[in-house]
């Protein structure tokens, strides 16, 4: 009982909830960026009738799990640091400027951390090209993160359209803003829209390899 009521348990539960939200947001953002394309989910492809190439590395599943884990950590770390500095819980309603800064910082730091881990550990990246992969990832992170300024405004805007009950729900205050932010950060930062930004296996799944050869 003590463990379940301890602050550390609640913190871990909050991070786990954020991780799950970001996983779902990343998955849903693929439908915004690639509404008619088939995505490569690695090992999971076999359950949706698609061929498996790489089971994990270089797939959308790796991105979903890896980015969500990094963002969940940087999000809660940044919130704690800002709240300690402000001597009050961080929120967009009470500290809008600080919250927007927090948004830029935690997204940039989280995605950059993912890019660094991917460049260091991904076996599909050639040894001599890991530095290049890291530099490219960090540059795309910089570009993509700059588009996330609007994320804190999504819930207040939704409140005017659908009412405060919807805006303050998990969907309105967490999932929807994260899904839209994922779409622009990935879409703009990595030019990941439509038939662009697909990996080689996704090109094959969508019958685009012949078009690419032309």
Descriptive terms for the model:
single chain; 214 residues; mainly alpha; 69% helix; 0% strand
Note down, in words, how this protein is organized:
- The protein is mainly alpha-helical.
- Helix content is 69%, strand content 0%.
- It has helices spanning 2-5, 7-33, 60-86, 96-121, 130-145, 151-162, 164-167, 170-189, 200-205, 209-213.
- Helix 6 crosses helix 8.
- The longest helix is centred in the first third of the chain and has 27 residues, at 7-33.
- The model has no long low-confidence stretch (mean pLDDT 95).
Q: Which blocks of ≥5 consecutive residues have pLDDT under 50?
A: none
- Count of alpha/pi helices: 10
How far apart the termini lie comes to 65 Å
Q: Please provide the ordered H/E string of secondary-structure elements.
A: HHHHHHHHHH
Structural class: mainly alpha
What's the count of strands? 0
Q: What does the average pLDDT come to?
A: 95
Proportion of residues in β-strands: under 5%
**Cα shape:** globular
Biggest sheet record:
none
Q: If you compute it from the alpha carbons, what radius of gyration comes out, rounded to the nearest whole angstrom?
A: 19 Å
Estimate percent helicity. 55-70%
């Amino acid at each position: 009982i003590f463990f379940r009521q301890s602050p550390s348990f609640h913190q871990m539960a909050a991070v786990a909830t954020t991780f799950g939200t970001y996983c779902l947001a990343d998955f849903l953002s693929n439908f915004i960026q690639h509404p008619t394309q088939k995505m490569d989910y690695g090992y999971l492809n076999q359950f949706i009738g698609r061929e498996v190439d790489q089971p994990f590395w270089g797939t959308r599943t790796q991105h979903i799990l890896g980015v969500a884990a990094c963002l969940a950590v940087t999000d809660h770390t940044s919130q704690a640091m800002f709240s300690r500095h402000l001597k009050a819980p961080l929120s967009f309603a009470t500290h809008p400027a600080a919250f927007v800064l927090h948004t830029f910082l935690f997204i940039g730091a989280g995605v950059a951390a993912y890019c660094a881990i991917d460049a260091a550990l991904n076996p599909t990246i050639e040894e001599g090209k890991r530095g290049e992969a890291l530099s490219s990832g960090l540059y795309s992170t910089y570009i993509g993160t700059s588009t996330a300024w609007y994320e804190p405004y999504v819930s207040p805007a939704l409140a005017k359209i659908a009412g405060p009950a919807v805006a303050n729900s998990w969907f309105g205050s967490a999932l929807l803003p994260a899904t839209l932010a994922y779409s622009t950060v990935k879409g703009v930062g990595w030019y990941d829209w439509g038939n662009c930004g697909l990996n080689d296996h996704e090109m094959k799944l969508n019958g685009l390899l012949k078009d690419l050869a032309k």
